[in-house]
Amino acid sequence: MTHAHVTGPTTPLTLSLVVPVFNEVESIDLFIARISEVFRSETQVAVDIVFINDGSTDGTLELLLERQQHDPRLTILDLSRNFGKEAALTAGLQYAAGQVVVPIDVDLQDPPEVILQMIALWREGFEVVLGHRVSRDSDSWAKQVSANGFYRLHNRIAEQKLPENVGDFRLMDRCVVQALQSLPESRRFMKGLFAWVGFRTTYVDYVRPARAAGATKFNGWRLWNFALEGITSFSTEPLRIWTYLGLGVSLISFAFAIFIVLRALIHGIDLPGYASLMVAVTFLGGLQLIGIGVLGEYLGRTYIESKRRPVFLVRRIYSTKG
Ligand code: UDP
Ligand code: MG
User: Fold this and answer.
1) What are the pLDDT digits (tens) for 179-210?
2) Which residues have any ligand 1 atom within 6 Å of their CB?
């Protein structure tokens, strides 16, 4: 393989870490220290860190600004409010200038050492190196089960399969970052977009540890909405189901109608039938409501997308590079 960026192990390279932070005062120092430690002996890798402050209310920004005084590697994007991790990542990718870019969580659940293996694979010619979790032991049981269910369903109905047990933690070549930026949608389900753009991809295995400090920002309801976003962003199957369900139910009703008419002709008219009537009415009513609900999900998304609002708003950029 000979590709544009295939480089020897000593060719200098610039690496941008993209780190969304939302109320993470407890994690930031641990994170910066680990990064310094991991890259201390990597003299050929020039690291810069883009922190995206996603509307923190706990002094995260102030802490970052203080650290930046002594650490010119830090760039800080201060968003105008909490836009969510997806939007924060989008913002960070836009400002990350490195030849290779790695989105990474600040809580050290994405071990920075893994980046060294990713870089080695990038040097071999891969454009995307995924971080693949070999175990989710650190996640709660409920999260493991629901995540599994989500991937199953998503990959069954969506055209672009999501690699399982892969999060946002990955190394991307500049060309991949550019491709992501060319996608115009404003509702951004990053895992799906990452998969959609393609490129020459490989992965490294790692064990996902528990959070180093602080608490998770994703509760059950947020994850549920996240899953809905993922499925509706990348598949229209839930819309099409109703056609077939409707056809099936109509066929059954038609057969049933013939049966009733024949029975009335042969045996005469009888009144009882309240139970079957009620069942049919309520069952169909329920089905129709679900169908309308699914339509609503998509219509709502189309509506929001049609407004063409920006994905995030930046209050201020703090950079040491002028
Ligand atoms: N995060 C963010 N905005 C949010 C929620 C989370 O920027 O609205 C960041 C958070 O600070 C962390 C990363 O996204 O760096 C992952 O969040 P978390 O660890 O809470 O998620 P989990 O690992 O539990 O999935
Ligand atoms: Mg985490």
Assistant:
1) 988 887 776 777 778 787 888 888 899 988 87
2) 20-22, 24, 54, 82, 84-85, 88, 105-107, 109, 216-218
